[in-house]
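Following up on my earlier message about FE2/S2 (inorganic) cluster. Here are the inputs again, as you asked, copied directly from the submission form:
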Amino acid sequence: MESSVAVRGRGFGKTLRRDAWWMPPLSVAVGLSLFGAYATWAIMFGNTNNVYFADPYLSPFYSPCITASCPEKIRFFGVGWWPFSPAILMMGIILGFRGTCYYYRKAYYRAFFADPPACAVGEFRGDRYKGETSFPWILQNLHRYFMYLSIVVILFLAYDTGHGFFFEDGLGVGVGSIILLINWLLLTGYLFGCHSLRHIIGGNVDCYSCTLGGKARHGLWKRATWFNKRHQLFAWTSLIFVCFTDLYIRLVAMGTFTDLRIL
Ligand code: FES
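Thanks, got it. Here's what our run produced:
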């Protein structure tokens, strides 16, 4: 069997593979482009009349809502000097986190840069590949710091998800409450499967029984490993569902339909 080096040497896109190897990168390119288009619209232009909030539901794109233009009920801090969409500040963290994610890196390097297009398929740049050792790709090493910030964001999101169960007349459950809860669980599953987080929890430990709190750490590491093995699944389900959640709240806020109160 010919080595992948020999196959790469034949030129861009050349391969011995006979399967539809181009399908995954094509699907990723379509999926990420659709997400990018929707998120850009929702964040930059979709905040007229605060339609990201349908009491008690706040769109996850806007959580935490931190600018002075946010409805008082859900406003954190109230940054008065920020003239743009309240979502932009937080989305910088989220996009930084997803953009530097180990899974997404593999996915979009293949989908958008064909670098390489797939396993054992000829690369565009041939032997000049330098990995992530020079600018701008060396910035991917910031992933760990975006992960720290994302933990803070997920805690705010937990608060706003809880807020989705408190109606004008007290505690209750609406379809929107359930949607917000599923959204939070998926996003937390994505975060908990992060390679950097798993490493910090226990990946850097050589001997659990010799470490303080080693048993608890090992248990946590095993759970993180379960999520880590499904990181791609959580990456996509959480990405799609967060858009669905935003759209649902937006349509309720615009009066397109009424949220169904279950309890
Ligand atoms: S590796 Fe994917 S979020 Fe950290």
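One observation from looking it over: Residues 101-103, 143, 147, 194-196, 231 surround FE2/S2 (inorganic) cluster (CB under 6 Å). Hope that helps, and feel free to reply on this thread.
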